[in-house]
Amino acid sequence: MTHLPDQGPQPGIHDLGYARLDTDRLERTGDAEVVYGAGKTPEQVVELLRTLHATHPGNAVLATRLTVEAQEAVAAALSAAVVDPVGRTAVLGTPPALRGTVAVVAAGTSDAPVAAEAATTARVFGANVEVITDVGVAGLHRILGVRERLDAADCLIVVAGMEGALPSVVGGLVGVPLIAVPTSVGYGASFGGVAALLGMLNSCAPGVTVVNIDNGFGAGVFAARVARRAAPRETKDDV
Amino acid sequence: MTHLPDQGPQPGIHDLGYARLDTDRLERTGDAEVVYGAGKTPEQVVELLRTLHATHPGNAVLATRLTVEAQEAVAAALSAAVVDPVGRTAVLGTPPALRGTVAVVAAGTSDAPVAAEAATTARVFGANVEVITDVGVAGLHRILGVRERLDAADCLIVVAGMEGALPSVVGGLVGVPLIAVPTSVGYGASFGGVAALLGMLNSCAPGVTVVNIDNGFGAGVFAARVARRAAPRETKDDV
Amino acid sequence: MTHLPDQGPQPGIHDLGYARLDTDRLERTGDAEVVYGAGKTPEQVVELLRTLHATHPGNAVLATRLTVEAQEAVAAALSAAVVDPVGRTAVLGTPPALRGTVAVVAAGTSDAPVAAEAATTARVFGANVEVITDVGVAGLHRILGVRERLDAADCLIVVAGMEGALPSVVGGLVGVPLIAVPTSVGYGASFGGVAALLGMLNSCAPGVTVVNIDNGFGAGVFAARVARRAAPRETKDDV
Amino acid sequence: MTHLPDQGPQPGIHDLGYARLDTDRLERTGDAEVVYGAGKTPEQVVELLRTLHATHPGNAVLATRLTVEAQEAVAAALSAAVVDPVGRTAVLGTPPALRGTVAVVAAGTSDAPVAAEAATTARVFGANVEVITDVGVAGLHRILGVRERLDAADCLIVVAGMEGALPSVVGGLVGVPLIAVPTSVGYGASFGGVAALLGMLNSCAPGVTVVNIDNGFGAGVFAARVARRAAPRETKDDV
Amino acid sequence: MTHLPDQGPQPGIHDLGYARLDTDRLERTGDAEVVYGAGKTPEQVVELLRTLHATHPGNAVLATRLTVEAQEAVAAALSAAVVDPVGRTAVLGTPPALRGTVAVVAAGTSDAPVAAEAATTARVFGANVEVITDVGVAGLHRILGVRERLDAADCLIVVAGMEGALPSVVGGLVGVPLIAVPTSVGYGASFGGVAALLGMLNSCAPGVTVVNIDNGFGAGVFAARVARRAAPRETKDDV
Amino acid sequence: MTHLPDQGPQPGIHDLGYARLDTDRLERTGDAEVVYGAGKTPEQVVELLRTLHATHPGNAVLATRLTVEAQEAVAAALSAAVVDPVGRTAVLGTPPALRGTVAVVAAGTSDAPVAAEAATTARVFGANVEVITDVGVAGLHRILGVRERLDAADCLIVVAGMEGALPSVVGGLVGVPLIAVPTSVGYGASFGGVAALLGMLNSCAPGVTVVNIDNGFGAGVFAARVARRAAPRETKDDV
Amino acid sequence: MTHLPDQGPQPGIHDLGYARLDTDRLERTGDAEVVYGAGKTPEQVVELLRTLHATHPGNAVLATRLTVEAQEAVAAALSAAVVDPVGRTAVLGTPPALRGTVAVVAAGTSDAPVAAEAATTARVFGANVEVITDVGVAGLHRILGVRERLDAADCLIVVAGMEGALPSVVGGLVGVPLIAVPTSVGYGASFGGVAALLGMLNSCAPGVTVVNIDNGFGAGVFAARVARRAAPRETKDDV
Amino acid sequence: MTHLPDQGPQPGIHDLGYARLDTDRLERTGDAEVVYGAGKTPEQVVELLRTLHATHPGNAVLATRLTVEAQEAVAAALSAAVVDPVGRTAVLGTPPALRGTVAVVAAGTSDAPVAAEAATTARVFGANVEVITDVGVAGLHRILGVRERLDAADCLIVVAGMEGALPSVVGGLVGVPLIAVPTSVGYGASFGGVAALLGMLNSCAPGVTVVNIDNGFGAGVFAARVARRAAPRETKDDV
C-alpha cells in the first residue's frame, strides 16, 4: 500500500529515512543531539553515531541504552569510540575543555548502571565528573565521610533506588544544586522505581529536583549545563 | 466433558467455530469487520481474511497486530495481500474510491509502527492518507515547517509517546479535527503509555480526542469516517 | 517584592493583566478563544466575555464551568447573554449559519450537565445540535428506538458515567464518527469517572474516540468541526 | 538448617508434605477441595487429583490452571480424566445428578479459555451448563437473538474483556442472577483486565456481581451453587 | 439557546422531563425500577416514588441514597412510606409473598448503613431477611457462634470494610452462595474501600462474588433473586 | 420494615445495641478492647469508655480519633479521664506497672498528632514511653545527637510524613526493633501519605516494619507488646 | 498522661516547643530555614518569622503557604514584612546582593500562584527574577516571541498544569537549565496534577528536571542556587 | 572515558570494587551485613559470603534471593554452607546461642518460599524458629488447632498472599507481636501482592505490622530482634 509522498527536505534536519537528525540543535541549545539506542538496530546506532560525529567534529557525541549487540557493533565499526558496558553508552570524539565539576553519588552497587550513564553524559556535555558510590543511608558514616567533596562540587547527581532517601540526607548536608535520580532497583512495593520517585519528589530537603526513573542521561545533561556555567569557586581546593 | 449444544445459525453471522464473523456490519455501519490478529493462529488469520474478502469482494479487508509468523502465512497463502511489517498489517482487496485526506503525524521514529497501522487503516476505510514523521516538540521548526499541510487535511491523527505533547502543539496551530494516539514508547514513569495518554486527555488545545494506547487502528477508522464525508475544501491545492 | 518588569505587548495577544487573550486564534484555527470559568471571579468572567465579544462581533462567544455567582453576574451585566444553569454556560452573540448536525446522546439523567455543555459548545462552534437523553444500556429498547436519528447525524457525542458502556453499543449500531465523554457520575470504584474513561478507551466498537472526564466542551468543539465540514447527506430526511 | 518440628496430624487434613488437603471441606461446604495447578509440578497435580478422587469417589474432582505439561501428565497417568486444553482443566470422576442450568455467555473468541473454565467448573459442582459465545455488544443482534435462552437459565455467567460492557446489556434484558467475569483480554489502558473489572463493578444494571479477573473457576462455583438449589422453573421448556 | 426538539414518546418509558422511567423493566426482568436518590431533589424523589408506586401497585417500590432532606420530604408527603435513616432508604407499598431467606452479615458497627441498605433492598425484591452484625474476624467466636444460621440461609450478603476478610472466613465455613460488599470504612491505605474490594476479589474461599464499594443495593437485588427462586430446604428448621 | 429478629446474647460479648463489645479480648490477647472514635457520637464514646472501664477496672482503657465534641463530652462526663487534644485520645483508669521502654521518634512538628497517639497508646498498653520530636533527616545532627537514647529503648516507633526517610536512617544507626508510621503530612505527589508508606516499605535498613498511614494506635499496641515482654537491659543506664 | 521528659537543648537547634528551628542550616547549606505555613497557626507563623529574622538579620527570611488569616497576622504584627496574597508568601528582611537571573515562565493564568511562590523564593534565595506568564503551548507565537529572554536567563522555572507540555517546548528552544513545576490546575484525568507531573518526567527535551506538584518553593530554591553561582554571561545584553 | 579517581579507604568499610561491605554494622546494630543476591553474579555471592564469614567468624552469615546458579556456586565453593533451594538462601557459620522463639505461619503452600526465607533469617539472627504451614482462613479449624503454639511464641511472622486475611484472624486469637508478610501469590486484581499488602495494612486486629511484598528477610530480622530480647515466659511448656 503506497502512501502519499512524505515531506521533502527541510533546513536543520538530516533525513536518514528511519530517523531525521535535528542537526540544528547544537546551534539552538548548545548541545548536539544524542543517539537513544533503545529500539534501534546495531547498524542504525553505528550510522547515527558516525553521522553525528561528522556533523559535529569538535564535540563528543553520545549513544545511550545500547544493547550488548549494539555495543559490539560500535566497537567493531568505530575504533575511536569508547564503549562502557556498565552504563551501556558509547562516546565518539572529545568534548571541548571541561568546566566545573559534577559529583555523581550512588546509594548502592545496584545503582551503578544509572550512575555510570549520568557520569558519562555529564562529561560528554562538558563537565568534570567525580563518582562516589555505595553510600546508602543505612550506614550514615559513609556519606558523612565524603561531605567536603560533596560541598566542593558545582552540581550533584544523587542516584538511589528502593526508598530513595539519599537525596534528602545529602540535601540537608550541603547547599549545592542537587538532581535526584530514582532507579528501578527494588521489588514488591517499589513498583519499578515509583517508591523512590515519590520519595524524591517529596523530599524534606529544599532544592531537590528529580528526573524520570533510571534517567541518568537527563540528569547528566542538566548537571553539566549547571556546572559548566558555574563561576570558579574558591573553596574547591580538594578537587 | 460435553457441554450442552451451542447456539444454532443466526442471520448476519458467519460461524467458523473459533469465531463468528459479523457479516452484517458493513450494512449496519458502512465498514466491514476486521481481523484482530492478536491471539489468533496464522492459519486462523489466513482463513478469516479469505472469508471476509469473499464476503466483501468490493472492499479492502484488513488484518492487524499480526505476528511475524502470521505475516508470512498471509504472504504465502494470499498472493494478492499487501503485508506491512512495520505496521504489522495485511490488506486484501481494494478500497472503493478514496475520499478526503487524513494526515498522520508522528512525533518520533519509535512511533512508526502505530503511525503505520493508523495510515493503513484509514486508507482501507476509504480515505487518502499523508504521513508526516519525526516532528517532535523538542525541535519546533520541524512541525512549524509543515503547518500548511496540516491545515489542508480533513482530519489529523497525531501519534506520540513519552509526554505526548505533540497534539497540544498541533491543536494550537490548526483547527482541523484531531485524534491523538498515545504510544507505549518511553520508560520508567511513562508507565507503558499512561503518561502520554493522560497528557493527551488533558490537552490545553480545544478539540483533541484520544484513543487507547497504541491504538492506531481505532484512530484510522475514526479519521477515515470523518475525512470521507467531508465536503471538498477549496484550499487543498497542495494535496 | 518587585520583580523585574514583565514582557511588553505582543501581536495577537490582548493583555488584561490577569489573562492574555489569544485574539489570533480565530484566524489560526477558525474558532475564537473561550472563557474557562473555573477559578475566575464573576467580574473576570464578565469582562472576558465582553472583550471576546467585542473582538469577534460576528461570532458567538462562550463561557463554561461558571459558578452560580458567575452565572448571575453575567445575566446582570450582559443582557444579551444566554445563560444555561444546567450546563453552567453563557453565550454572547450569534454563531454564523449552522452547518451539519451533532447528536448528543446521554445515558442517564445525571449526565445532563455534561451533555448540555457539549450541546451548547457544538452550537456555538457552528453545528446544529440534537439531544437524546436517558438511553442507558440497561434498557436497550430506548437506544434501539432512536437508531435512525443516530444514523442521520454527522457526528455523535455519547455521554455516560458509571461503566460507560453506551458508546460501545451505539458504535456497533451506526458508522457515524463517535466521541465518547465519560462523566464523573458514580461512586466507589468508579473513581470519579475513571471506570467510564477506561471503558470508553477500551471500547470493542471500532472508531470511538474519547475526551477527558466531564469534558463536554472539548467534545463539542471537536464534533462541531467534524459536522460543519461534512458534505450534506442524502439520507438525512428525518432531521 | 533444621527448623523445629512442624505440626503433627490434625483431623480433616490430609498432609502430603508439600500441601495439606482440606478433606473436611465437602462435609462443611458441600463441595470438595480443588487442585489449583498454578505453581505446582505435573507430578503434584497428578498425585493431588488421585488423592482427592480417592477421598471423594462419588464426586467429580477438578484441577485448574494446568500447564501443557501438567495436562499431558494427567492424561498419561489418569486415563479416566477428561482434560480440556482450552480451559486448561482436568476432571476425574462423575458429578452427582446435575440440577438447574447455568448459562455461560462470552463476549469474544479471546474470552473462550475463561468461559471454558467457568463451564467445566459449574458442571463439576453439579449444574447443567449451556455455553453461548461471541455475542459482544458491538453487534447487538447477536445477544438479542439469544434472549430467551438467557431468561431460561437459573444463573448466568457473563465473560468479557476490554470494556466489559456485556453484563450491563444482559443484566438489562433478563432478571436472572448474573455473575460477571472480567478477562485480561485487551491492551494499553485495559491494564490487564482492570478496565473490564471496573466496568462490571460499576454496571448500571442492578443485580450484577463480579469475580476476579480471569476467575472462571470462582464464577463457576458460585453459579453452580445458585443453580443446583433453584426450584424447577415452569418456563424452561427450551432447555 | 434552543436545541432541536428532543425525542417524542416511546413505549415502555414514562417521561417526567428530568427522568424517563423504564416502566417496562418489571415485565422484562421481574423487578421494578428503583429511585436512586443521589443528585436528585427531595421533590423529584417524592414524585418518582409516587409515580413508580402508581405504576406498580402490587409491588413495593424503593428509593435509596436519600439525603436527610429527601427522607423528610418523603415522610411528609407519603405517609405510607417506611423511611430508614440508617440505610437512607424509603419503601412504598408491600412486596408480594416473600420467598427464601437472605442473611446479611456485617463485620463492624460502621458497616451498618450498607448492611441496612442491602437488607431493605433484599426484602423489597421479595426475600425474607435476617441480619447478623458486628461479627468481625478479630473475634472469631462471634462468627463461629452463628455458623448454623449462616448455613440455613439461601444466600449470604457479607459486608465489611478495612481489610475485608470476613467473606473469606464465612466462605470457608458454609457453602451458601455469598456476595461480598466492601465498604468505605477505614482510613489511609484503605483508599476509600479499595483495600476491602481487592481483598474480596482475591478471596481464597471459592464461590465469593463481589459488588461495588458500599453497594448494598446491588447485593440486595442479586441475593433476593437467588433466594426467591431457591427450592425450600429441609434443614432450615431454625428460620 | 421489620427484619427478622437479630441474634441473641453470646458469651464474651456485651451488646449495647449500636456496638457489641468483645469483653473476652483481654483474656484472649492480654489487652482490652479500645474505643475507635471515628464515626461515633460523643454520647456513644462516653458510654463505651464507661462500660469498658467498668469491665476492666484494673486497666487503663483508651478512646482514639475523638472529635473535639467527643473530647469535650468525655471531659465533662468522666472527670477521671485524661484527654489529649493533640493526639485526640482519652484515657480512663491506670495501666498496670509499666515494663520496658518505647521511644517515639517524630520527623517534623506536623507529625505530632500521630506521635502523640502512638505514645499514649503504648503507655495504656503497659510500656514506659519516651518522645523525641523534630529530628528530620534534612538536619542529621538532630538525630545523631540522640543516638544513645534510641539504642537504650526496647522498641522504636518512628513517625514521618513526606518522603518518610527517617526510619531508614534510624534503622541504620541502631538494632532496636523499629516500627515505622507514615503520616499524611505532605502535598501533591505525597498522595495523602502513600509516598511515605512506600518509602518505609522499601527501606534499605533491615528490620523495619510498617503500619497504616497515620496509624499511631497500631504502632503503639505493637511496640508496647514488644517492650513489656523484653528482658531488662544492662546498658539502659541513661533511661 | 505524663510522658518521660523530652530531649534537652542541642547545639544548632532553637526549640520553640511546637518546633525546633535548624539555626545551623545557613552555615551548613548557605540558606536559612524557611517557615512552611501549612498547618501552623497565624501566631506560630509570626513568631517563627520573627525568630528566624532575629537569627539571620543579614538575610531575607521567608514564609510560604500562608492562609489568609496568617497573611493578615503577619501584616499586622511585622510591618516590615512584604506579603504576597497571590503566592501566599511573606518576606522579612532583604536578601544580600542578587546574582544571576532566574526566569519564571507560566503556561496559564491559573498557574499564577505557583509561579509567584517560585519567583519570590528565588529572589529571597539571592537571584534576580523575571516573570513571563500565559505562554501556553496552544498558542506557540506567545512562547516563540520571548525566546531571547529565555536564552538570556541563568536558570528557567517553567510552570504548567493540565498536560504540562510547556517544559518540553521551552527545553527544545534553549539550552538553559530548566526546572519544570507541575501544577494541580486541571480536572478529571489530570488527577490533581499527576498528568502534568508525568508529562514533565517523560519530557522528550533533554535536561528537564521536575519538582513536586505545586512546589514553586522547591523550584525557586534550586534555581537561585544555580543562578547565583553562574558566571556572568556575555550574551545577556538584552536583560 | 576515565572518571576522576573514586574515594579512598574509609574505616568501617571493606571495599571489593563492586561493593563496599559495611563491616561496622555488627558493632552498630548487633547484626552483621547480609548478601542480597539479586543482581549479583554467582562469583560475587561466593566472595561476599566468604569475606563476611571471615570478618564475623563467631556469627552465621546469610545470603538471600539466590539464583539456582548462585546456589550451586555456593554449594561447590563453600562446603560448610547450608543452601535452601526453597527459600533461596545460603548460610555460612553458626549463630550464637539461640534465644526466644519465632513462629512462622504461612497461609498456603505457595507461600512456602517466603516463609522459608523468613525462618532461615530469624534463626541466623539468633532466634529459635517454629514453622506452621497451610493454615489459610478458608479452613478455620486448621488455624484454631494451633492456637496454643501461636500463643507460646515470642513473636509471630504470618505469611499470606491473595487477600492476606490470615494476620487479622491470628491477631484476634493471641496477643503476641505479629509481623505480616504479604506475598505475590495470586493473579488478576491481586496486582502482584498489592491486595494482600493493603489488606494487612488495614487489618482490624490491633498490633499488626507489615513489611514489603515477599520480604521474608525483613520480617525475619525484625522478629529475631524481638524474640531474642524477650524475657523467658512461664507458659511456654509446650515449646
UniProtKB/TrEMBL annotation, chains A, B, C, D, E, F, G, H:
Residues 100-232 form the PurE domain. This is NCAIR mutase (PurE)-related protein. It comes from Kribbella sandramycini. InterPro entries: P2CMN_synthase_LarB (IPR039476), PurE_dom (IPR000031). Pfam families: AIRC. It comes from the Bacteria. GO terms for biological process: 'de novo' IMP biosynthetic process. One of its GO terms (molecular function) is hydrolase activity. SMART domains: AIRC.
